[in-house]
Amino acid sequence: MKAALNVRNAAAVLVVAGLLVLPLYTSLSGNVFALTLFTRIVIFALAAASLNLIMGYGGMMSFGHAAYLGIGGYAVGILAAEGIGSGFIQWPVALLASALFALVIGALSLRTRGVYFIMITLAFAQMAYYVASGLARYGGDDGLTIYKRSDFGGLINLSNRVQFYYLCLACLLGGLYLIWRIVNSRFGMVVQGLRSNEARMQAIGFPATRYRLVCFVISGTMCGLAGAMLANNTDFVSPAVMYWTRSGDLMVMVILGGMGSLFGPVIGAAVFLLLEEFLSQLTEYWAMIMGPLLLLIVLFGRGGIDGLLGRARRG
Amino acid sequence: MLLVIEQFLNGLQFGLLLFLLAAGLTLVFGIMDFVNLAHGSLYMMGAYFAASFVAWTGNFILGVVLALGATLLLGIILEFVALRHLYGRDHLDHVLATFGLILFFNDAVRLIWGPAGLALPLPPWLTVPIAILPGIYYPAYRLAIIAVALAVALMLYLVVMRTRLGMLIRAGASNREMIGALGINIKLLYTLVFGLGAALAGLAGLMQAPILTVQIGMGENILILAFVIIVIGGIGSIRGAFLAAIFVGMIDTLGRAFLPDLLRQILSSAAASTAAPALSSMLIYLVMAIVLVARPEGLFPANRS
Questions:
Q1: DSSP 3-state assignment of A147?
Q2: Which residue segment(s) compose the domain that A102 sits in?
Q3: Among candidates B184, B208, B207, B188, which has minimal Cα distance to B196?
Q4: Assigned domain for A74 exists
Q5: Cβ <8 Å between B106 and A287
């Protein structure tokens, strides 16, 4: 694949470069808040990228992706509460739990298509939400405070903001690389083929559901990783992380950035969270601006920000 | 025994209320192929309108009628200004646009009515308990909800199945291009159907309002239940929505009422009291999962032949 010099690639390079040097800026300017905000952005970018894998490339509109954020977070939180502080145990458990959940709900949900799929994934995520609310031992509705971040021995110290930021960024870039490799592999081609024309792919002899399920599980696992990072970032996990509006936020990020584009979700997450931050400083009623803005984006801005960049290249 | 009858009636009442919400949703989906997440916001607006109009006019019935009209109008405006441009688009666009509307409505309500909830007080003649069987009393208001919702369901059935408008609605659901080609003003029809759905949601909201408080976000959880109902019932099918709504209302109410006691028979008391609330909230979603696995099209798919 030849990397062409165009607006879209230039934007991606700029974003990555900006994210890489951000801690330099924050330590020079002493703006600690920006680092916290961008850690959050990077984490949500990973979650959005994982959703983009199934939604943009696979055509599976999951409206329950926040469930993995919660599962990853609760895996870290519960193990920490039980006295197992090692990240080498916490994080693999978080990934495994998310993968398992994705496997089960994927196997059930993928029997359905279209709007049914949107709704059944939503319902399963709500179920996870209620389960978490019922965990009286781990805070129930009020959530669970994590007193000590995951311990990775002498390797990396998560309580150090800069180190934690770079870990998150490394996970994001690793995740994007993985998605890029998947999308351009034979497996990824099959999944994208299934989005375009399922009947034809099946006629060629590809087992549609199996391919989709594997893709669904990979996506869920990746989002579980984002969940483990998010819990460490906030030192807290609560059922609210997997409330359905959170899944909606993730969807918005993907669509805002541009579905089915590698860097779209990263840009989408950044724009969404920065806009939220900016508007909420402007007015207490920021959602009154954000809501109609979304409507306008849907009405007039097809293809998201990535689509705009693509048009700029042609124009 | 008393408790069982009472809970059955509660389940029926809740189910009928859910039906009002689900009917609008399934009509709009079945006919315009439009996924409206903001349906719950219309439910909320109905309740807020009712609370304001009842306080303003001092008359419960008058306030409720005004609130219904206001919700109908709001639905029509919403459809006319924004949503009609989204018909024929991808479902994902619908989800996103109406998600934006939810954000807008929640904050708009917070701005206009403030963050604290409102109360919708009942007139005295609706607060008396009525003897449904000798010695068994049931609140008059809940009986009134059952009666109104049943009447609306019947009316809806008659309108859809027995009138010219209903015939057009059904025709629009099965082939929109064709009825457009036959000279029917399909845009007007869509606007009417959306307004009808909005009014039904508003009715559900304002009837629920005196039982619970009127508050921001009240439409969101119940909206998801309504989605579960139309998925179980089969999207686009009013009959399916009706049966599924009663079913879900019963399961939810009876589950919450009796599951803790049932669990206590098997588990220790402490384990039961922690597991029961989560399990009874999950019950409906479990049922939905089972239905979708067994019959991905829902139990009563709309007859489109």
A1: coil
A2: 32-244
A3: B188
A4: yes
A5: yes
Amino acid at B38: A
The reply to whether A201 falls in a domain is: yes
Which of B127, B124, B122 is CA-nearest to residue B139? B127
Q: Does A300 touch chain B (CB under 8 A)?
A: no
Residue A2 domain-assigned (yes or no):
no
Strands A144-145 and A236-237, sheet pairing: antiparallel
Only one residue has tokens 């990979």, namely A218
In a domain, A249, yes or no: no
Instruction: Give the 3-state secondary structure of residue B214.
Output: strand
Chain B contacts in chain A segment 82-141 (CB below 8 A)? 108-109, 111-116, 118-120, 122-124, 126-127, 130-131, 133-137
In Å, how far is A37's CA from the nearest CA of chain B?
22
Contact by Cβ (8 Å): B194, B75: yes
Whether B285 sits inside 8 A of A124 (CB atoms) is: yes
Q: What is the H or E stretch that residue B225 is in?
A: helix B218-233
pTM: 0.87
CB contact, 8 Å: A75 with chain B? Answer: no
Tell me which of B85, B96, B235 to substitute to probe the interface with A (most A C-beta atoms closer than 10 Å): B96
User: Which of B95, B289, B292 has its CB closest to that of A63?
Assistant: B95
Contact yes or no for B107 and A115 at CB 8 A: no
Contact predicate A161/A149, CB 8 Å: no
**How many angstroms away from the CA of A301 is the closest CA of chain B?**
11
CB contact under 8 A, B224 and A288: no
Q: Coil, strand, or helix at residue A149?
A: coil
Residue-wise over A6-19: b if at least 16 C-beta within 10 A, else e?
eebeebbeeebeeb
| Contact: B97, A124; criterion CB under 8 Å | no
Any idea which residue has 């400083």 for tokens? Answer: A281
Residue A15: name the closest of A233, A265, A250, A228 by CA. A265
Whether A279 contacts chain B with CB within 8 A: no
Contact assessment for residue B212 and residue B218, using Cβ atoms and an 8 Å cutoff: yes
What is the distance in angstroms between the CA of the first residue and the CA of the last residue of chain B?
A: 46
The one-letter code for the residue type at B251 is I
Number of independent structural domains in chain A: 1
Print pLDDT tens along chain B (305 aa): 778 888 899 999 999 999 999 998 888 888 888 888 899 999 999 999 999 999 999 899 999 999 999 999 999 999 999 888 888 888 888 888 998 999 899 999 999 998 888 888 888 888 888 887 777 788 888 899 999 999 999 999 898 889 998 888 888 877 878 888 888 888 888 899 999 999 999 999 999 988 888 888 888 888 888 888 988 888 778 888 999 999 999 998 988 888 888 888 887 777 777 777 777 778 888 888 788 778 877 788 765 43
Q: Considering only CA atoms, which of B240, B77, B85, B96 is closest in space to residue B157?
A: B240
**Rounded distance between C-alpha atoms, residue B146 and residue B14, angstroms:** 9
Instruction: Tell me the C-alpha to C-alpha distance, in Å, between residue A280 and each of A21, A275, A284, A286, B198.
Output: 26, 8, 6, 5, 30
- Give start and end residues of each alpha helix (H) in chain A: 7-29, 32-52, 66-81, 87-109, 114-133, 161-183, 186-196, 198-204, 208-234, 244-257, 264-282, 287-300, 304-314
